[in-house]
């Protein structure tokens, strides 16, 4: 399998671990990733809430480049994935939109190629049997809460998993030998840029998610989105300082990091050393260092 | 030369508002054969009919066209009018310039032009009308009731009391239906079983009522007054003639199964009656779970049965009986809320439905009437009720309002307060709808005296947090999100049609709506009849209904059936198919097409080339024919014609409009 | 509290509601005010009007109040409301349309969020991608709290999570033209 790879801005900076681990996992699964040449930012939520057309055009430029190469796109970031999917569907379902988008991008995107999330490519398409067969270091029953966030399973009716109780990552955790805990906040929003732009509002969302994850006995949380990851990982320290009784030390992982580790890679090679919250003790507990 | 009269109705402003009726009448005068045309405010009224009668006399009319509403509405009215003026009632046509024109067009000019076209069409056809005669058929004075819930029982009792034999076919092992599962009834709070079981016993003891439980209707043939119904009596594995209902078998049976009657909250045996007051009080063996049927071992019930009634060899039995009328009262199902991911996809044990709650509060239910939550049998202190689950929800459920939930939820909250001292109920609602006698007062009492906090808003999420259920809603009256830590959540699930309603409708040849509820012949004026003559509706199979409404509708359906059965002979419509024998080749394609089995072959003798010869042709049984016209389309020689809608008449219409 | 004159409000708001319908594809009249959107909204607790109330205000034609609300800026676009709406309406799309309209009308009630978005897009317009360090520093300076999140910077730099200079893509001129064209075309379209 070969995909046009769209890392998005985060995977080249704050989400560098996601990039590193995705490349490793792709290699193990025999998925070839060819980065979209000279890709641009998808605009994230700022784009489409400022100018609707711009919000469709920014992702469409990248899709158009991928289409020239005849490759479907894999986008690890949930927000990038959501924006690209929205653009893909909009162009496919309306000739008028297609023409307007083409006018803005000065490129033709016909809707012949589409976008998939990394979770779809690495777990759904690869299959749990393949994942099991590649697992050399069992997660040893580590209790893990799979956190999908909101955008990965939206828009409803287009997404690849259930909008209220997605299972792709849970199944992956089980396949790797971990214990996927059942919890109700799988798709609650982490606030996206709100913890940065409106700290008080954003931090409450992160607090609620971490609290519930902790209450069901999760020893770690696994995500498939750089923004979710940053909010859950980087903000724990903030919360511990600013919220009474908050004492979070919950390791957060990208699902690709767990896959890479289980497939026998050194955690450091997958970027696991770059987290804010210490991961070494939970990895040591399950002999995964 | 015919003498046609045209009468254009205003229907108040219904037609006249969008159609220039005077112009239509004026234009009609110019049509061939039309000798008189006029307009009138209400053609169907007494004076309106007099206008027609007077014109018939004065202008010596021999054909009449009325341009008004749908023939569904007033064709019989105007036919009677012609009859009383001494004309054959079939020398008449209606132009539907209301439903087909004024109601659907906003433009008066275009509407008027279309109305003129429709009248031209009718005037062209009426010239070709021939006088027709009705025929009559005998009636089997016996009724079949499908479904033995409260509606079916009431129908059966009413028809039986009027002196006609009735058969109730019930697919469960007992009659009683949903009402038997319910604990108390609103708004009086009297015990459901106490008022239902006497009726069940009445039905079982009535000399005119036969109950076929654990049976289903397999095939329906025939027509109004003369239905031939094939009924499958499913193998009970128990000989009804020997069984005394002593109960030894189900006491001894070692296999426990989740009880459907108790909504899976309690257990029953593999040989069982659904509940102690079952009628008939004779068990059936659930062959899927019975060990004897699974692996040949056991057979304890047979060993202990004092009368030797247990029969593992019993087979399904098919019987065919004649009935004159059918009443359908198959009831409803409860909506399956497992489509609501935000409410946990049905996986939280303490998120239950209204019917579960009925079993929990019932003294003979699985908890002996103590409200205990299913997960840990703790008595809940905070109970949250969520209304409109699956109702008024196009996204995940049904668009309609289920009508009963507001009241049964109020009842549940009242009972929570009565049974659990110090408890608190919260009720999430969108609107409180209480249009019944004493209903509003009951709701008010629940809110004011029974500690039920009503919160206006739809719940968005229910999730488990420790041993509590977190319920998130918005109090839309203050505009703030609210959260409740509940011990138990009761969902007021929508009432939906039975999953096999569509199949039964096709078997019976009756229509059903987008939600699979059976459709009445007219939403206001024929609420218990179907479009299929002789088939009537009662209870929630026609749409969500509470007990009083179901019983009222049952009475209405019974009186319609009694009206039919009281006749000795029944007039059948004159609009039937007719064979032109001279052109019929006897290919009999029409016979296979006819849904009413009204066509058969017959041998005629005719003179061909001076010699007498025999030849096969088709023959239509005028009593059986329902005038659907299917055969006329199938006939290759075009020798089958529907009287009143002959090919010649239809072509005349087409020419009038298209040429 | 002043009573609202609904006669004039609904007359005045008619065109605006139609504009929102065209932009979002959502007919706000179809909303039956059940509040499921607001009950599930993760940010509703911080809003001045719940999403349901925003829909209601549109129904009544209270254009200016809607455009001045904080809610339309706080919406995180997570689409939970749209996913659960029993009338299959999509409040998230209404929020998007309203935010665009509010910006046009000059009502940026939530300075910080508006500033963040603006800095974000400016970064994209000039580089083709977001320069995260520049964005956060620029944002914190603009909102007069230069040291917010500064504590995490050293470790992020060390981990390669922050770059000191933006990556400028080759096609950045093309991207800038996209911004200009999109603005011009959306202006003409409505």
Explain what the structure shows.
The complex is a heterotrimer of chains A (289), B (659) and C (190). Helices cover 49% and strands 10% of the residues of chain A. Chain A is of the alpha/beta class. Chain A folds into 2 domains: 117 residues, Glutathione S-transferase Yfyf (Class Pi), Chain A, domain 2; 158 residues, Rossmann fold (3-Layer(aba) Sandwich), CATH 3.40.50. In chain A, strands 2-1-3-4 form a 4-stranded parallel sheet, with helices on both faces. Chain A has a 4-stranded parallel sheet with strand order 6-5-7-8, sandwiched between helices. In chain A, helix 11 packs across helix 12. Chain A is globular and about 55 Å long. By secondary structure, chain B is an alpha/beta fold. Chain B folds into 5 domains: 123 residues, Rossmann fold; 189 residues, FAD/NAD(P)-binding domain, CATH 3.50.50; 81 residues, no CATH class; 161 residues, FAD/NAD(P)-binding domain (3-Layer(bba) Sandwich); 66 residues, Alpha-Beta Plaits. Helices cover 28% and strands 26% of the residues of chain B. A 5-stranded parallel sheet of chain B has the order 10-7-6-18-29. Chain B has a 5-stranded parallel sheet with strand order 20-27-21-22-23. In chain B, a hairpin with an 8-residue loop joins strand 13 and strand 14. In chain B, helix 1 packs parallel to helix 5. Chain B is globular, with a radius of gyration of 31 Å. Chain C is built from 11 helices and no strands. The model of chain C has no long low-confidence stretch (mean pLDDT 90). Chains in contact: A-B, A-C, B-C. At the A-C interface, helix 3, helix 4, helix 6, helix 10 and helix 11 of A face helix 6, helix 7, helix 8, helix 9 and helix 11 of C.
What descriptive keywords fit this protein?
heterotrimer, A: 289 residues, alpha/beta, Glutathione S-transferase Yfyf (Class Pi), Chain A, domain 2, Rossmann fold, 2 domains, four-stranded parallel beta sheet, B: 659 residues, FAD/NAD(P)-binding domain, five-stranded parallel beta sheet
Overall outline of chain C = globular
- Class by helix and strand content of chain B? alpha/beta
Count of helices of chain B?
18
CATH architecture title of the largest domain in chain C: Orthogonal Bundle
- The CATH topology of the largest domain in chain C corresponds to Fumarate Reductase Iron-sulfur Protein, Chain B, domain 2
Percentage of helical residues of chain C?
55-70%
Q: How many beta strands in the DSSP annotation of chain B? A: 34
Q: What is the number of domains of chain B?
A: 5
Spatial ordering of strands, largest sheet of chain B: 10-7-6-18-29
SSE order of chain C in H/E notation? HHHHHHHHHHH
What structural class is derived from the secondary structure elements of chain C?
Answer: mainly alpha
Poorly predicted sequence stretches spanning 5 or more consecutive residues of chain B:
none
Give the class-level CATH name of the largest domain in chain C: Mainly Alpha
Query: Kindly, what is the distance between the CA atoms of the first and last residues of chain C, rounded to a whole number of angstroms?
Result: 34 Å
